[in-house]
Amino acid sequence: MFETPHPGQLNPTDNGRIPQLRRELRSWTRDLAVALGLALVIIIFLYQPVKVEGTSMAPLLSDQERIFINKFVYRFEPIERGDVVVFWYPLDKSKSFIKRVIGLPGETLELRGGRLYVNGKELNEIYIPPSYLDGSSYGPITIPAENYFVMGDHRDSSNDSRVFGPVGRPYIYGKAVFAYWPVDHFGSLTMSSTVNAASR
Fold first, then answer.
1. Where are the beta strands (DSSP E) in 42-160?
2. Which residue among 1, 31, 76, 78 is least packed, with the fewest CB closer than 10 Å?
3. Residues known to be catalytic
């Protein structure tokens, strides 16, 4: 004759498994919350979403395109030629502009018939379609210390250093690093910033 087991003793292994599953669930929830919190901190404090307005950086960036800028990168590395930067407009600090760094501190820059020369050598601007050059002339100008000469890639529709002069280092607060909207522009922006000064 068999004795009927007490309901709590039907599956003794289950009694130990349920608290274990609860502990694992709490652990996963905690880890997920920490991961999401870290991601939020990174996005808020390191990166900032920005909406591009205007066509001065076409074809790299289009009007109303959404990008991320890195707000801390220049605390650890220098601003380089070819970087696409976001800065406070020198003539109105309530506005932000996005342009490409063309000239560095101490360099002599000149624009001849739409072609740029840095220290006497023509700049190989591989990112600009020929139809986007405007044929204008400017300079020569020697860029002051701690200042950067910036220009839009779409030269005939850009309000840039040709108008408001070189931009002081304190005005530059971010580097464009990633496009996320529209989806056909999704991807890194840093690979598009390569530029060299070379004779040709």
1. 47-51, 66-70, 84-88, 96-103, 108-112, 115-118, 121-124, 138-142, 147-151
2. 1
3. 56, 99
Which position has the token pair 């701690």? Answer: 146
pTM given for the model: 0.76
| Cα angle 199-131-60, degrees, rounded to a multiple of 5 | 85
- Cα–Cα distance for residue pair 99/152, rounded to 1 Å: 5
Class of domain 48-197: mainly beta
User: CA 153 → CA 34, 56, 59, 77, 127, distances in Å?
Assistant: 41, 6, 7, 23, 7
pLDDT over threshold 70, residue 196: no
Q: Residue 142: beta bridge partners? A: 108
Please compute the mean of the pLDDT values over residues 25-37 and round it to a whole number.
81
Instruction: Find where tokens 């002069």 sit.
Output: 165
Q: Which helix or strand (DSSP H or E) is residue 196 part of?
A: strand 196-197
Written as one letter, the residue type at 161 is S
Give domain limits for the chain: 7-45, 48-197
What band does 3 get if pLDDT is binned at 50, 70 and 90? low
CA-CA-CA-CA torsion sign (114, 120, 121, 126)? negative
**CA–CA separation, 132 vs 125, rounded Å?**
11
Given a cut of 50, whether residue 192 has pLDDT beyond it is no
For residue 82, give the nearest of 164, 146, 153 by alpha carbon.
Answer: 153
